[in-house]
Fold this sequence. Notes:
By secondary structure, the chain is mainly alpha-helical. The chain has 9 helices and no strands. Helices cover 67% and strands 0% of the residues. The longest helix has 24 residues, at 79-102.
Amino acid sequence: MLGQNLNAGGMGFLAATAIVLLAHAAIQGELPSSTTQVVAEARQVLDGGRTAATTADLNHGPAATMMAVVTNALFADYGARAIAVLAHLAVAIGLFFVGRNLFSYGHVGLAMATLYLLHPATAFDVGAATHVLPAALIVWAFVAYRKPLVSGCYWGWLVARCSFHCSCCRSGSRSTVGGGCGSPRH
């Protein structure tokens, strides 16, 4: 049986390089409107005002705003970019632990994390923190599969994060297939 092409050092180097390039793209690139909306609501919370959770164009749940409050307090103007980078990093580290814990082989986890970071779809919209946060929560729920309370907290946080849909879904224009509105944004 043949061994793998890359050893742990090669995969680690590729993963570290990919996360640096993704972080650079997230910091330098333009933020999507969903992420800027989350940041604006987090700034309202930090300033002591009420959140805009009752507005008609809300397309995320309250967990995204609460995470943005923490990163805005720590990273000021780079809060949204930091949460996107940290969420991608959480997915990669979670994939490593999934490979190590579920498959009992750390190289498989490192390979999964490296392939996630090198995949072109990861870099497509790297600054969209509201898109990668559910993936991070799902991966970490699988990491904690032997601790049901922790895994359930991740799933609950995921439900809180995804509890709202776009304004067209709430307005009653749902299609019969899949329950969504059929918008290309989904």
